[in-house]
Amino acid sequence: MVPSTRPVRERTCARVLPVNAAGEVLLLHGWDPADPGSPYWFTIGGGVEPGEPLVDAAAREMHEETGVQVAPGDLVGPLHRETVAFDWGPWHLVQDQTYFAVRLDLAPGQEVHFGGLEPLEVGTIDRAAWWTPEALDEDGTAVSGDLTRIMRTAVDAVGGGR
């Protein structure tokens, strides 16, 4: 692997895995703006503001990235924590990520939208879809090899598929 030439940006992130009654997890599809030819599926979430509790950041990110409002008290977890490093936009990000799950069954007419994306995110996320861990394993387009394991933990935590 070639070392990144992008400046390092360290940050703390809160991530959300919404799980529906069928045991599917809502994921986003997007890419590094510097490499649009290599898209992948990833979890909802992003940077924590100074002094912001992780669970509040997770709920805020859920709303910003999907248009769907969830209460911090509805989030289950933390389920998983990891540090990852990857290139995105102008940076080499080193992120301390904490994951939460939430049971989410969209009401008729309720849709995911990207109206709250940050300017740099606009044009790098093109859709959202519900995935089972098994289907995403088969598809092979997860952002990381750990994603489907974390998805299974989220499904178990909120009783999805039961």
From TrEMBL:
CDD domains: NUDIX_Hydrolase (cd04685). InterPro entries: Nudix_hydrolase (IPR020476), NUDIX_hydrolase-like_dom_sf (IPR015797), NUDIX_hydrolase_CS (IPR020084), NUDIX_hydrolase_dom (IPR000086). Coiled coil: none annotated. Keywords: Hydrolase, Magnesium. Its cofactor is Mg(2+). It holds the Pfam family NUDIX. Transmembrane segments: none annotated. Residues 9-153 form the Nudix hydrolase domain. Belongs to the Nudix hydrolase family. This is NUDIX domain-containing protein. It comes from Nocardioides oceani. The lineage of its organism: Bacteria, Bacillati, Actinomycetota, Actinomycetes, Propionibacteriales.
